[in-house]
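seq/struct pair 1
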Amino acid sequence: INEFTSPGARFHLGMAEDADVGSNSLQGYELETNGYFAVEVKGSHDGSKLAELVLRRPLDRESEQTLRLLLTALDGADPPRSGTAQLWINVTDANDNPPVFAQDRYRASLREDTPPGSRMLNVSASDADAGTNAHITYGFGKMPEKVLQKFVVDVESGMITLQEPLDFEDTSAFSLPVEARDGGGLVAHCEVEVEVLDVNDNAPEITILSLSSPVPEDAPAGTVVALLKVRDRDSGENGHVSCELSGEEPLSIVASPGGSYKVLVLAKALDREEAAFHELVLRASDGGDPARTGTARIRVTVLDANDNAPVFSQAEYTVRVPEDVPVGSVLITVTAIDPDEGLNGQVKYS
């Protein structure tokens, strides 16, 4: 009898035979006490008494798969005589139970450098039915094509495997809806949350947003020479960047309050006559282990200022001149040098 059979259904059991007649013949039937069935006597036109099994309440194969009941036939004598038969009832399965996942929500963590083909997680569902009604297959629910390309779920085992490389900087988490479907078409759902763990796979990037070059040599200390943007696409310590400047001393680096911008400022006065340009290397290192670095080269030219007076080759010249020297004679040549550049370095005499 199928477990979906409605209460009130009747099943013919046939009849018992009694060779006696009259009140000593078969009078009725009794059924062993149980929670599902009763027996009723049905008379026929020839006076025989048939037994019918009547279902009183719904069956449930998952709680009782078989029932063994004793049916007794009684005659009308005093005391009565009886005969018995055993009823063996097999309750056949109906697809009245959907699959049930072991967990409503699964969580997994994967490093972003996990190689494709790696097994991630095994989801599992069970079904209380039997046979094909209990055969479960797995699949993904509706989700973006981009996510479907990343993961695959084994139809039979529920094992979820990574198909394509991950990139934390592109997507740091995935939500995968998984379905379990039994052979009768009933479906259960669960959610798989995948956290992508950052790996230090990005070096810091340095972008020169502005650069003032040349810089006048009389610019005061603290003058901003360059504005830089320093960025690392990683997160946490892997994305925490520190900067250092190597090269000549006149420039120093200062972090802006936001942390992602840096400024180069004059740490002390410049002197073009000492150095006409300065070559610097900015090195940015992240907090990963091992750390990754990025570098940028900056060349700052110093613009001349008229900060030097001409200087004679001697502070005092002595010339002995005969009194009869002709007018127009060259007595001496004096020289002065100005270390400045261009017009600032051209010397005139008077």
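seq/struct pair 2
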Amino acid sequence: TWKWVVGPMFLYLCERLVRFWRSQQKVVITKVVIHPFKTIELQMMKKGFKMEVGQYIFVKCPAVSKLEWHPFTLTSAPEEDYFSIHVRIVGDWTEGLFNVCGCDKQEFQEAWKLPKIAVDGPFGTASEDVFSYETVMLVGAGIGVTPFASVLKSVWYKYCHDATNLKLKKIYFYWLCRDTHAFEWFADLLQSLEAQMQERNNAEFLSYNIYLTGWDETQATHFVVHHEEEKDVITGLKQKTLYGRPNWENEFRTIAGNHPGSRIGVFLCGPEALADTLNKQSISNSEADPRGVHFIFNKENF
């Protein structure tokens, strides 16, 4: 038995040593941004840190806990000179991080007072393959939208730099949230992308649908009077917020009809129940003919 155990144990110990060495490298918090609904953004720098879209890191804050490591998706783009994460305050550890970063104080926080942070990673996810397709469906549920913040930022940087060499030609973005609070920090990015794409006369590049799943049409009746306004009253975007849950069968059929003979990447960051639904739709709407439309499903969740 020992012959079969020694090899894997040696590899495991090597991996632990590499992770320990990486976690000891100095990380500098350059900026802390407080977003609505108790969500904070940490912008950091680390020597030699290289990332791809959609990757995640493990974070430890010794001032909160000397042993706990927590995974967070990177929300910055590889083209930016820093890396960032968005942290929603939902438990003891995140509450402690919120406090040690001085977010509970009204006065300006000096940089030297910010806590030390240890970072391990980045680690790869399925979202890295976004740029391998001409057409993609991005589906985020709640805070699961964070990897697509990185994707959309990177798409914009690549589009501005050299749009002709960008293989990705069409993005269908779906964001599902139970309440309006979760929209507030991410809507700014969508507003910026929406305005910039219109300036370049390519508004069709990004199609997005935002669903407020905790409400239905009867609960949203008082918003109907504002439906004819240019911008949505909840998100401030031109695309109006939809209520309830999407009809995935209709969405897949419509996209398949718009892109015959294409390989379409379907990327999800969300719960298992939604993953099962999208996986079944990807299979049922893919054609048997190799020259027909094919949906390739990719998922990630913590």
